[in-house]
Amino acid sequence: MNTVPAQVKGPERVLSVTNLRAYYQTQYFGISREVRAVDGVSLHIDRNEIYGLAGESSCGKTTLIKTIVRAIRPPLSIVEGSVMFNFAGRECDIYRLNRHELDSMRWRRLACILQGSMNVLNPVRRVRQSFIDFAFRHIGQPMPQFLALIEGHLARLRLEPAILDNYPHELSGGMRQRVTIALASVCRPDFIVADEPTTALDVVVQKDVLGLMREVQREIRSSMILVTHDIGVHANVTDRMGIMYAGRLVEEGRTVDVIRNPRHPYAVHLVASLPRIGDTTQKQGLEGAPPNLAAPPPGCRFHPRCPLVMDVCRKEHPPLVDVAAGHRVACWAATQPDARRAA
Amino acid sequence: MRALLDVDHVGMTYFVGGLLSRRAVRAVDDVSLRLETDKPEILAIIGESGSGKTTLARMILNLAKPTDGAIRFLDTDVTTIGRNRARMRFMRQVQPIFQNPFAAFNPLKRLDRYLFMSARRLADARGADIEAAADKALHQVGLSLAEVRGRFPHELSGGQLQRIAIARALISSPKLIVADEPVSMVDASLRMSIVNLFKSLRDELKVSIIYITHDLATAYYISDRVLIMQGGRAVESGDARDVLVNPQHAYSRLLKESVLSPQDAGKPFVPVGGISA
């Protein structure tokens, strides 16, 4: 009788991040400063899954995805932890790859969609040239076949082949963002990183662009990490989501569970404070400001703003523990209600 | 009733391009709106980018001259306001708040200087009154001069900076505030406190506010009336609750359908189909 290895049973895991710490370390005039932008984050993403990452500005979202794709440069450096990708059954630690292996993996396996489409496309070259610059050498086919492939892929995103002859400024914001999505997905990568892909777009265009992005992702069965601060986008697009606060993951679970039944006080506030059409109740802002990551408060980093603060919160950082199937929370009050009653 | 602000069929045409490829852009076309003196209210102007919201705001602030129609503030045509005293008087009564608080303040200048300068120039304060005026305005937004004195913009969060921008606007006790996307750059956890602040300005200080946004949910939350713009034209206007709960114009309905709500979690995603190839 053959025993099936544990990984094969469940869904195929594409990314595993283990206890990742990435700090910005600077030293000027003998004063060293350490900004702990990502501090002990562990997460995993399965094949054909969209993982959402939410949190306010300067909470470390962008630093986290930069370290995941190894797009880091000093002063940002990895202090601890690992980022393991599993592409087609081959496990690899992205920080152990050499230059050549990394280059062959980029775009073919690992692609990015970034916020400012205007900054991705070369403003003085036609869109066709951008496709050739980005994808030609990864696809490895002669030019006529390559261009036919591009045109077929553009049609999937409801773009005319004629836009290949346009300059980026001739296209509307929504079209440009669809071009960057086409660029990122044309090599059918296993993993796509999308950093605020629709933040610069209007509401009407945003919904359609998200729909197309999801359609393409489902078709090529890639995994995606989607970073945005808009909880509405997470609710509509992502399968699972994590909420970051001050460099740490404070809550993670299926998007439906996190939004309908948030446990961490920050997540509770984030969801409750969103105004809705048809809802006239008074909403409250959160008092205080996000902590300075160069000198974070001891214990739980949310405790100075937390309505449920207890003694233990000021001393010890809460671990991320399971509260329900696949729903993890890092909060003393949410995971140990008894301690709260006693306090 | 006397009109505080009477925007009377204004339009604005820009010319873009060079000598040979000159082309007219109709940014605002035949828009009218009216605010009353005795009824302070929040009027939301909603629309996508390029719908003329900001051009309309610039015309109300007398930063751009309408090509047709007229804008009257307390019965004075704003285009007749010159550069000197009349303009100063107008600026005391109409104050702007801009989208990006990090861009509104010079990073090399201390924040209290903005407040003191506004107090001296717009509120005619002298000596000790200058600090008193700044402190009073900061208290109205939930801050105090002690917290702000000597600080540079990078030392404060976006939410705090936006509060200081609002405090600066309040120093001259304006009757009208034009806020162009005031919360879109502010973090979600601080956004609602700014939005609530606008509500309290209306209720306690009796300031009318023109709130320009593309976010229908906050517009619903704070505004009394809305004006929905598309392509420079006002396509729908009326009571905020009525219009946003039950929009009549096709474009307003499309806007409402496009709002991504957290309530959608777990439901199938339905694109609105606004993209044409």
- Which overall shape of chain A is indicated by the principal axes computed on the Cα atoms? globular
CA gyration radius of chain A, whole angstroms: 22 Å
Q: How is the main sheet of chain B built?
A: 6 strands, mixed
Query: For this structure, what is the CATH class of chain B?
Result: Alpha Beta
The CATH H-level homologous superfamily of chain B: P-loop containing nucleotide triphosphate hydrolases
**Which topology of chain B does CATH recognise?**
Rossmann fold
**Overall average pLDDT of chain B:** 88
What is the rounded Rg of chain B?
20 Å
What distance separates the N and C termini of chain A?
A: 54 Å
Segments of chain A where pLDDT lies below 50 for 5+ residues? 1-8
* Number of distinct helices of chain B: 11
* Number of discrete domains of chain B: 1
Tell me the helix content of chain B: 25-40%
Write down the secondary-structure element order of chain B: EEEHEEHEHHHHHEHEHEEHH
Q: What is the CATH H-level superfamily of the domain at 12-109 and 189-274 and 290-342 in chain A?
A: P-loop containing nucleotide triphosphate hydrolases
Q: Got a strand count of chain A?
A: 12
Which class of the domain at 12-109 and 189-274 and 290-342 in chain A in CATH terms?
Alpha Beta
Order of helices and strands of chain A: HEEEHEEHEHHHHEHEHEEHHHEEHH
* CATH fold-level label of the domain at 12-109 and 189-274 and 290-342 in chain A: Rossmann fold
CATH architecture of the domain at 12-109 and 189-274 and 290-342 in chain A: 3-Layer(aba) Sandwich
β-sheet strand percentage of chain B:
15-25%
